[in-house]
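Hi R.,

Here are the chain sequences for the assembly we discussed:
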Amino acid sequence: MALKSETFPIASSNDVVRVRQTARSWASELKFSLVDQTKFVTATSELARNTLEHGGGGSMTAEMVENGPRKGIKLTFRDEGPGIANIELALRDGYTTGSGMGLGLSGSKRLVNEFDIQSEPGRGTVVSILRWK
Amino acid sequence: MDRIPILKVGDCLLVTIQVDMHDELAMSLQEDLTAQIAKYASRGVLIDISSLEIVDSFIGRMLANIAAMSRVLDAQTVLTGMQPAVAITLVELGMSLPGIKTALNVERGMELLREYMGQNTESDEADGSEE
Amino acid sequence: MSAFQEILRSNEAAILSGWLSEMATGTRRNDLMNDTDLKTQATELLRLFADASQDSSDVQSEAFSATRSFLKEVARGRMERGFSPAETAMFVLSMKQPVFNALRDSLKGDPTSLISEIWVSGNLIDKLSLLTVDSAIGLREQTISRQQEEMLELSTPVVKLWEGVLALPLIGTLDSARTQVVMESLLSAIVETNSQVAIIDITGVPTVDTLVAQHLIKTITAARLMGADCYLSGIRPAIAQTIVHLGIDLTDIQTKAKLSDAFALALQRMGKTVTTVKAAATSNAKVKEA
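And here is the predicted structure of the full complex:
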C-alpha cells in the first residue's frame, strides 16, 4: 500500500542529483540509519545514472510503502532505451558493456532489500528497488 | 558553471570535495587537476572527501582515474576522510579502489604525502639522475 | 441501534461485582494487582464501553478511540507487572458473563432482542479483547528487540591498546546482523580515536565459514578505504585449515596467530618500539642527591 508517491524526470545530470536528494530526504523522513541511508541513496544514484546514460533518459517514481508495521521506500526507474539483452549477464559482478554499467546493477542489488528488473532489447528497462526501514 | 577549487600548498595540490557533484562537475575536476599537476609539476595531490556523504561507482571511478593520471605525471595521490558509511557502501558495491592511498584526515594525508615524496627524491638522488 | 448500553448503565454495580468474581475464579493474579486497582479499571472500561458502543459498532472507529487508548494502557500496565498476554486479555473477556446475566435478566420476556443484544455486545467484547492481546504482544516484541540491540552492543566492545591502535576482540558466533553492528562500531571508533591500526581478534569465534570470512574481509577493506590498517589475529590452527579448505583468499590481509604479535606489528607500523628502562642506576643517583 502506497502512502505517498511522486514521479521525477531523469533527463540530465542535474536530475540525477535531484533524484539522489529526494531519496535522501525520504529515507531521512523514515529515520533510516545512516548506513542504510547511504546505501539506499548510492543505489539510487547508480540506477538513475544508468537510466540517463544507458537508457537515454527516463523517469523515477518514488513510493513510500508499508507492510503491516514496517515502512519502506520503493523506487522505480523507467526508460525507453535499448534495453538489456542478457539480464543475467548484466547482473553478474564485474560485467561491463563498456558504458560502465558494470558495477551499477549487481552492486545496487546488494544495497537494497528487494530488487527487480524487467528489460527487453528495443523495449526499454524498468528497475525497481525497495528498502525497508 | 561552478568549479571545485584547487589549492596549491608548496609542491602539493589540495582539493576538498564538499558538494553533491553532478557528473559534469566531476569531469571538470578531473581535467582541472590534471592540468594543474602538469602546470606546477606537483609531486602530491590530496583529495579530502570528509564532507562527501555519497560516493557511487561513478565518483569512485573518477577518483581512481585521478590517481592513475597523477601517477603518470609523477605525482602521488592520497584520499582522506572517507566516512564510515561511505566506506561500507563502497565495499558492498564491490569497489575497493586498489592503488589509491588513503588516510584518516588531511593532517595524516599530508604526512603520508611527504613520506612518499621524500622517498622518491631520495631514490632519484641515489640513481644519480640529474634534475 | 441496540439497547444494551442502557442495561449496562443501570446494572453497573451488579455487572462489576459479577466481573470481579469471574476474574477471581480464573486468572486473578492478586500477587500482581490488588482489588482496588482492578475495580477502578473495570469500572472505567465498563463506562467507556457503554459510551462508545452507543455511537458505533466498529471498534476501530473514532467513537472507540478513548476505549482503545484505555486498553493500550491496561495492556502496558499489566505487561509491566508481569501478566501474560492471555491473562491481560482475560480481564476484558471476563466482562462477558456478567453482561450476559444482566441482559438475560432485563430482556427475559423478549427472546429476539435478547439474542440480538447478546450477539452485538459479545462481538464487541471479543474484538476489544483481541485489541488488548495485540497490544500486549506488541509490547513484548518491543522489549525483545530492545534487549537484542543491547546484547549486540555489549558483545562488541572496541578497546584502545595504545595511542592509535584499536583492538576488537570478537567473542561468540558472528551472524549477519551482528557483523553489521561490529563493522559500524569499529569504523566509528577508528574515526573517533583517530587510530591508524585496528586489530580484529577472533580467538573467541568458534567457527569461521565463508559468510563470516566475507564479513571480516569487508570490514577490513572498509577500514583501509578510510585510511586505517586492519590486522586479523587469533587464528587458531583449526580455523586456518577451514579457511584454506573453503578457498577463502586472505592474501591482502595481514594475519597473525596471536593478538600480541599483531600488537607488536602495529607498534612497528607506527614507528614505535618497546625498550627496557635502565632503572636501578638512575634511581640510586636521585636518592643520593636528595
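Chain C is about 65% helix and 10% strand. The mean pLDDT of chain C is 85.

Let me know if anything looks off.

Best,
T.
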